[in-house]
Specification:
Helix 3 (about 55-70) packs across helix 4, helix 3 (about 55-70) packs antiparallel against helix 5 (about 110-130) and helix 4 packs antiparallel against helix 5 (about 110-130). The protein has helices at about 15-25, 35, 55-70, 90-110, 110-130. The chain contains five helices and no strands. By secondary structure, the chain is mostly helical. It has two domains: about 15-40, no CATH class; about 55-130, no CATH class. The chain starts with 13 loop residues before the first helix and ends in a 10-residue tail after the last helix. Helices cover about 55% and strands about 0% of the residues.
């Protein structure tokens, strides 16, 4: 029966041919290369307009620090920075902001402490990222 020849003439080229067909089918019309297969071509998105940018890290830091500062300012403990989703550097900023907010709350009331939290979190995070932000370690 079997004489060492393929029963179907294209069987020898089957896997290579199949891969070529699938790769070609994944591209956009008129496009070529890996970017077309992964959606990297700009023709489908309006002629090369940039995608929306992500939230800048210093803004995200400020939002996180302000949120957790508000949660912490009335308590007597800070909690675990990892459970808050903060890096070690962001946690250092949080502790400074909370200390200042507690003093401001005693001096001028809750509304003044809220304003200080927003102002200090924004300024301290901006400065932290301007000077390099997180270090080499994942906790920084």
């Amino acid at each position: 029966m079997a004489t060492g020849r393929a029963l179907w003439p294209g069987a020898v080229l089957g896997p290579a041919l199949l891969i070529g067909v699938l790769a070609t089918a994944c591209t956009e019309p008129g496009a070529s290369g890996p970017t077309a297969a992964t959606g990297g071509s700009t023709s489908a998105r309006g002629g090369g307009s940039p995608s929306p940018s992500a939230t800048p890290p210093e803004e995200l830091c400020a939002k996180l620090v302000a949120h957790w500062s508000r949660q912490t300012v009335d308590g007597d403990t800070y909690g675990d920075y990892q459970s808050m989703g903060l890096s070690n550097g962001q946690y250092d900023i949080l502790r400074k902001v909370v200390d200042a907010a507690r003093a401001e709350k005693k001096r001028a009331g809750s509304a003044a402490a809220e304003r200080l939290i927003d102002r200090r979190a924004r300024a301290d995070c901006r400065e932290w990222y301007r000077s390099g932000g997180p270090g080499e370690g994942p906790w920084q």
